[in-house]
Structures are given as structure tokens and as C-alpha cells.
Amino acid sequence: MLDPRKLKLLRELSRRGTIAAVAEALTFTASAVSQQLSALEREAGLPLLERTGRTVVLTPAGRLLVEHAEAVLASLERAEAALAATRTGPSGPLRIGAFPTAARALLPEALTILGEEHPGLEPMVAEIDPADVSAALRAGTLDVALVHEYDFVPPVVDDSVETRPLLTEPMYLTTRSALEEAARDPWIVSTPGTLCHTMTLRACQAAGFEPRVRHHIDDFDTVLLLAAAGQGVALVPRLAAARPPSGVRLTQVKIERRTLIAFRRGYGEHPALSPFTAALRKSTARATQAGGHG
């Protein structure tokens, strides 16, 4: 019988590429991961890994087993969700990941609603970039997360994750100019490696220029204050631009940001997900009705 815990390690190795990366993500030692994978090979009766020095790659049998591991782990997730549903009501920890704008604009009211309607749940929020969400969900450090996608940027989650749409919002340029006219302006962009950074670069390239970056700032409130101080232009989503500071004039551009609710495959039937989603949709509706542009 194949051990699901070892299958999880093999799946992570297929995605992360090294035993050291798997160990770091799942808080094991590298030697423990290596031992568990060797034990899995014995259980399978076939070599699953090819080791050349420090490099480890999956054999065809290893890749085949990873494909089945996805289905097995999703089925176990559904089984745990079914067991949880037999309790009297949603209870226990609910580990939530969110990007900064959502954590500020959507989660506080959603958690208030959730606490009033389901006091047995204990929400635990961690701020996280959407690019890191899939790994955190697979590792089990998060149960559910808010992620965003932009035009010009490929989807951020992998096939181990399911998503449900929550919000689509327009983007704004922090000037009265059109995007094509901002080629000579200094730019305020997010930290390299984030989705927001990639979106801005590709949007500018699609408009025919490379942005002249002056500042790297992730917090949109700070971005807007710097724009108001004449330090550059930036692209900001509607949620962040609801109350721009004096001196900032916003122009809607043909770019959208889509916010999604993300969770592990099989977790969709967990009794904690439905009330959290319902509370989140209520808070989102109120946030979008409260003001903003467009």
C-alpha cells in the first residue's frame, strides 16, 4: 500500500525540483525527505527517481505516480471534508491567505460576518503574494486563499488548486494621461517577482515602451501618496483607488484584475469553505458599492 504522506513528498519534488526545496517547504530535513522517498520507491517496487550527484529527476514511473497522486490526495481531502461535515457546525482553525489589498479592503468585514454567524471557526490570516499560494495550499499551511490575476499575466495557481471567481475590477493610471502617453514619466512599480510588477511591465510593453522605474513599492496606499507627491505614475486596482489622495487624478485603462478564492482540490466540500465564501461575497459587495471609480 502506498503511503499518501510519501506521495505528497513526491508531488512536491515534481514541482520544486530539489529535495532541499521540498524539505524547506514542508519543514522536514533533507535527509528525512530522501529517506521517505526511498521508502516510497520500495513500496512501489520501481525506481521513481534518478540521482546524479545533487540532481534528482523523476523517472517515467515517478511521473506516472505523481499524476495518480493528485487524484489520491484530492480524494483524501474530500474524505476529510465529509468527516468535518458530520460535526454540529463549522469549527476549528481556518487558515486564510490574502494579498494586501484584499486583506485590508475585504477581509475585516468578512471575518466580522463570519464570527457572528459561525463563532466556532477560528480564522487565521497570513499575508501572501498570489505567486506563493499554490505551494502554501499544497503544504497545508493555508486552507483557502485570495489570489488575483491580471491581463498580460498567466494564471498564478497550478492544477492542484481549484478557484472560484470573486471580483473583477478595472485598473487605473494615476494621471489624466492615457497609458501610451506615460512613456516619459517615471514609474512606481511593485517588487520584482510579484504579479503586480509583471503586469505593469507587460502593460507598458504592450503600449509600446519600457517603463522608467523610479520606485519599487508593494503597498498601494504608499504608491498613491508617492504619485500625489509627483514621484511617478502607477497602475492601481479599483479597490486600492477608492479614495485617492488629493492631487491624484485617475484614468481607467483597458486592464482588469480578477480576484479568486483558491483552495486545494477536494477542499471545496469542507463545511468551513461555504460560510467563509458567503461572508466574503457580502463584504465584497459592500466594498464595491461603497465607492471608487468606474
From TrEMBL:
Source superkingdom: Bacteria
Protein family membership: Belongs to the LysR transcriptional regulatory family.
A molecular function GO annotation: DNA binding
Sorted UniProt keywords: DNA-binding, Transcription, Transcription regulation
Domain called HTH lysR-type: residue spans: 2-59
One GO CC term, this protein: protein-DNA complex
UniProt keyword Cell membrane present: no
Name under which the protein is recorded: DNA-binding transcriptional LysR family regulator
Keyword check for Cell membrane: no
InterPro entries associated with the record: ArsR-like_HTH, LysR_HTH_N, LysR_subst-bd, WH-like_DNA-bd_sf, WH_DNA-bd_sf
UniProt cross-references to Pfam families, sorted A to Z: HTH_1, LysR_substrate
UniProt organism field: Nonomuraea dietziae
